[in-house]
Amino acid sequence: MMADLIDKLKSHIHWEEGMDESNLPFYLETAQKYVKKATGKESEYLVIMVAGIMYDYRVSDYELEQALSAITPFIVQEVYDDGAEDVQEETNEQA
Fold first, then answer.
1. Is the pTM higher than 0.85?
2. Each residue of 17-55: pLDDT tens digit?
3. Angle, vertex CA 68, rays to CA 26 and CA 64, nearest 5
4. Which of 8, 35, 43, 67 has its CA at a distance of 20 to 30 angstroms from the CA of residue 1?
5. What secondary structure, in 3-state letters, does 21-58 show?
6. CA-to-CA distance for 62 and 91, rounded, in angstroms?
């Protein structure tokens, strides 16, 4: 699974052949924890987005904070969608 995520992250950040990829697993693992804590699950697209942001803003704390704040609507939508699915399942079970 990690190799698949690394390939998707490379595609997302336009990785060039020959670049050092030793930190990519760290960015993905950290992104997985961040997304899991924020949404209660690990949505792959959010993990890739967060890992890409962490890669792009690996030096500046302020810019990293701003970039992560910018994806808040995606995180809220994921939580909302998950809640809507739970309500739909409960409705189906009661019927």
1. no
2. 888 889 999 999 999 999 999 999 999 999 999 999 999
3. 70
4. 67
5. CCCHHHHHHHHHHHHHHHHCCCCHHHHHHHHHHHHHCC
6. 44
